[in-house]
Amino acid sequence: MTLKLCVIPGDGVGAEVIPSAVEVLRAVAQDLAIISAEAGWACFERCGDSFPTATRDAIRECGAALFGATSSPSRKVEGYRSPILGMRRAFDLYANLRPTRDTGLRPAASAVAASLPDGIARADLLIVRENTEGLYVQREYMRGEEAIAERAITAAASARIGRVALEHARARRKALTIVHKANVLPLTDGVFRDAVRAEAKAFPDVAVNELLVDTAALQIAARPQQFDVIVTTNLFGDILSDLASLWGGGMGVAPALNLGTGVAIAEPVHGSAPDIAGKGIANPAGAMLSAALLLRHHWGRTEAADRLEAAVHAALGAGVRTPDLGGSARTQEVTAAVLTQLGIHR
Ligand code: NAI
Ligand code: MG
């Protein structure tokens, strides 16, 4: 079976880390066939479309994509829409998997110790983020003086994401935490919580509890090892996964996979990082680990995924690290070190 992959580097550091991820992916999946496509801000400036039809068609043809990041302006630009939101919508990529595993790496800017006292378990958690509704539908408008953003939650989408989370929990340590804010939003977050709870009846082997999102944030910061799988709505999942990423080494390391039915798009959690773009020092680990998620959860190549993840962690563990992890290595040096771990000397 040939693995077909649509590669979309995007803007800023996206275009710097994606080629590295493709290179190491090729090392563990020799039957990889690639179609290149474009999306993002530069693409919009050039052709007036941030997510061209040709890119959509290429993703559909491949059924899998690896996407870097785009620079989305934080003001309204006529005609521009965030391409990743467009992709999630176009292919109904309803589940966003965001795992964090503590291997002792910490962002250089963080004061959290990498070494833990004996007997303290390390974080190994998976945030399953609902990816199709909530505030990301972008129904924003003015009503007189009021700026309004609508947040709709459906039982169907909540049940669907609940099932994904429960299946992952079953395959892991069999514990699921539902994160919501039903004390303030009893209707919308009540629908979410109740729909996940109803799905959980079919998973008697999975222990289910729930936390309010603010408490969950504190607990992820204070005692992340208590979590196995967390399921939550779109915005909460976005925010909590940045926080959780701290335990795995931060934004340069955090991977994500958008999953639908038959289509998957891997993307590092980070954005285009304009502060370091063009310097050749972006950490390619997040993009590489995202590619590993494609192997594991979309293509079913568990062994290749294991090899790739182990190679990334071995290279970083040996001290070949970009500045975000306190090192002085460049993107290309990390890439070479991961390839070396995979037996390839370039
Ligand atoms: P960001 O993730 O781009 O950067 C946050 C911090 O993390 C910065 O200090 C950056 O240097 C660092 N960082 C990010 N990726 C890194 C890497 N690979 N290696 C080392 N350090 C890394 O988030 P920010 O600054 O909030 O957003 C910048 C732009 O990215 C915005 O235009 C935003 O809209 C866009 N963005 C796009 C996303 C996407 O396309 N999926 C996701 C998040 C943001
Ligand atoms: Mg985010």
Written overview of the protein:
The structure is a single chain. This protein is α/β, with parallel strands linked by helices and 346 residues long. The protein folds into 2 domains: 1-99 and 254-346, Isopropylmalate Dehydrogenase; 106-248, Isopropylmalate Dehydrogenase. The chain has helices spanning 14-28, 41-47, 53-62, 83-90, 155-171, 188-200, 213-222, 234-245, 285-297, 302-317, 331-341; strands at 3-10, 32-36, 64-69, 95-101, 124-130, 140-143, 146-149, 175-180, 207-212, 229-232, 257-259, 264-266. The strands form 2 sheets. Strands 2-1-3-12-11-4-5-10-8-9 form a 10-stranded mixed sheet, sandwiched between helices. Strands 6-7 form a two-stranded antiparallel sheet. Helix 1 links the parallel strand 1 (3-10) and strand 2. Helix 1 packs parallel to helix 11 (331-341), helix 9 packs antiparallel against helix 10 and helix 10 (302-317) packs across helix 11. The radius of gyration is 20 Å and the shape is globular. 50% of the residues are buried. The model has no long low-confidence stretch (mean pLDDT 96). The structure holds 1,4-dihydronicotinamide adenine dinucleotide (NAI) and magnesium ion. The site of 1,4-dihydronicotinamide adenine dinucleotide has 22 residues, from loops.
